[in-house]
Amino acid sequence: MAAGQLELFDARRWSREQRVAEAARLADALSALLTEPVRLVVHDNRSTMVSWRRVQGRLHYRVHHMFLDAPGEVVEALAGFGRPGPAPRRRSAGRRIDAWVRRHRGRIGEGRPARLEPRGRFHDLAALFREENQAWFGGAVTARIGWGALRGGGRRRSIKTGVYLHDQRVIRIHPALDRPEVPGYYVRAVVFHEMLHQLVPVVERRGRRVVHPAEFRRRERAHPDYARARSWEAANLDLLLGGGRR
To answer: Does the pLDDT value for residue 2 go beyond 50?
Structure first.
């Protein structure tokens, strides 16, 4: 079976080796499903997520990088989208592709590096990142880190203290943590949590994504600041919900 050929959009989502491996996997899967070689271009277009055409008899696919880690049923839909057949089958494939795009719309534009500000008024995220990386990860975590944007005002109903963007290898910490009342050990624990996501990735179980598998929880609880950080958060949730950076 001929392997699919590919070209890569240089999105900063994984290491070069990971990007090549995932794109090659997708190209080969499409080639196998369509029983012909596929030339694959991976891009970060903001409008057209999937397109295909024939060029001198060869099938060319262009797909957004959000499809690089798509599950089998979505890859089958991509193949069905480019395979001649009854209109209902093509519409069904299109609906599956559209559902995947809606689910991962936040990844559009992620390949483009965003400006990050690691130094806050009260906490320096870059320093915390370096210290945690050396102490717990042997320098193995490669990510950029910075404060998230402060949006709106007033009281929130919930707060996501940090987020790790796998595609970009970016960690964003909520600006509500950049306050003098928030202890450094709490910010450190949040930074550690997001760094851990890079080394203990999401797993799939029975079609369900498990973001914090058992290994993740075990390693997180082993951090010396874990227990007191959780206790501080429980006692000060009102403070975190009340406002952003001051």
So the answer is: no
Judge whether residue 231 has pLDDT over 70. Answer: yes
**Strand arrangement, sheet containing 58-64:** 5-8, 38-43, 58-64, 50-55
Which pair of structure tokens corresponds to residue 55? 């060029």
Q: Name which of 188, 192, 186, 185 is nearest 219 in CA terms.
A: 192
DSSP 5: E
Q: What mean pLDDT is predicted for residues 160-170?
A: 87
Q: State the angle between helix axes of 72-82 and 16-34 in degrees (0 to 180), rounded to the nearest 10.
A: 60
**pLDDT surpasses 50 at 74:** yes
Task: Say which residue the tokens 């369509």 belong to.
Answer: 34
Whole-model pTM?
0.56
| Dihedrals phi, psi of 220, to nearest 5 degrees | -65, -45
Beta strand segments in 105-220, E: 144-147, 162-165, 170-173, 203-205, 208-210
- In the three-class reduction of DSSP (H, G, I as helix; E, B as strand; rest coil), residue 52 is classed as strand
- Which residue ranges make up each domain of the chain? 5-107, 125-242
- In CATH terms, 125-242 corresponds, of 2.60.420, 1.10.10, 3.40.50, 3.30.2010, to 3.30.2010
